[in-house]
Hints:
single chain, alpha+beta, ph1033 like fold, six-stranded mixed β-sheet, 5 helices, 26% helix, globular
Amino acid sequence: xxxxxxKSEPSTWSWDDQLAKGEAGEEWDGVRNYQAxxxxxxxxxxxxxFFYHSQKDKEIVGIVEVCAEVHPDxxxxxxxxxxxxxxxxxxxxSPVTLTQVKDDPRLQDMVLANNTRLSVQPVTKAEWDxxxxxxxx
Length: 137
């Protein structure tokens, strides 16, 4: 199993929107960055990810699961763009902010701490466990 982080602007797609989709999940569409797309190409059903609110809140708020592997992004006719589907698993007991991530020396190499603009990014198992610990989950 691999671990990921999916970033979304809450005004566009929020954690509440993701929760409302239930077991069906939702396409993680609209990604127009080759590195983020390439990460999605490696994802497998059952991989887990953090759901991160970007912009104002800047915090990890939930856990999602990949429920459909890479396929064409339905939001465009451009065949270069692909996406996965994700479904909500659970909310974190307490959100973990970007400041908390950056302030924790154990997370100094986490992609989120160093490349906050990448919308889909890998998370190591150690980073995953630390963030869960920080959230009380």
